[in-house]
Amino acid sequence: MKIGLFGGSFDPPHWGHVLPVEAARERLGLARVWFLPTARPPHKPERRFAPSLARLTMVELATLHRPGLFVSPFEVRSEEPSYTIDSVEHFGREYPEAELVLLLGLDSFVGFHTWRRFRDIARLARLAVLARPGWGERLAEADPEVRSWLETGRAELLAGPAVAASSSALRAALAQGELPADGMVPDLVLDYIAKYSLYR
Which of 5, 11, 81, 167 is the residue whose CA sits 20 to 30 A from 46? Predict the structure, then answer.
């Protein structure tokens, strides 16, 4: 059995988070993928986020009707910074017989060598990199050791559906009272944002 893990701040979640992961689950034969909203990303210490439980709820709404996609509260149980190695070790204990696959975006892969115990993460989970159009130039910026994992099989590039959505652009638009273009954010997530005025 293969289990996928996909972390992020999801502030807010959008189809660019969901559709590539759904495609990766099918391509890699993952029994399920756990989305892991983080309370406080350690690489973004100064940024303000929507409340962590609100982001958890929005990811639940975004994946509600998507078979095989689940949401874990593991990283929002504490307001301390969340580290991927802790989550990988946790799910290793939860699924001792499973192969873990860590799904991550190309930006995260490029900076992966700065993550806490990054070699241990790659030892405990295979990396599946969700590539967007134009990934070749960005890939050249990755640490040589990490980039070499693509040749040894410790990491794999997956070309998935391209969704032109950005959480930062969505936050800026929502703060101005603008609705995102159709096809960017699940309707239930938009309803939740509006009800609680999350970005106003």
Answer: 5
Q: Which strand ranges, in their side-by-side order, compose the sheet holding 32-37?
A: 69-71, 32-37, 2-8, 99-105, 125-131, 155-159
User: Environment class of residue 23 by beta-carbon count within 10 Å: exposed (0-12), middle (13-18) or buried (19+)?
Assistant: middle
> Could you tell me if 151 and 124 are in contact, meaning their C-beta atoms sit under 8 angstroms apart?
no
Q: How far is CA 199 from CA 43, 48, 66, 151, 173, in A?
A: 21, 11, 26, 42, 9
Cβ atoms 79, 40 nearer than 8 A: yes
Do the beta carbons of residue 36 and residue 5 sit within 8 Å? yes
Tokens standing for 50? Answer: 């929507």
Please write the tens of the pLDDT for every residue from 136-145.
778 889 999 9
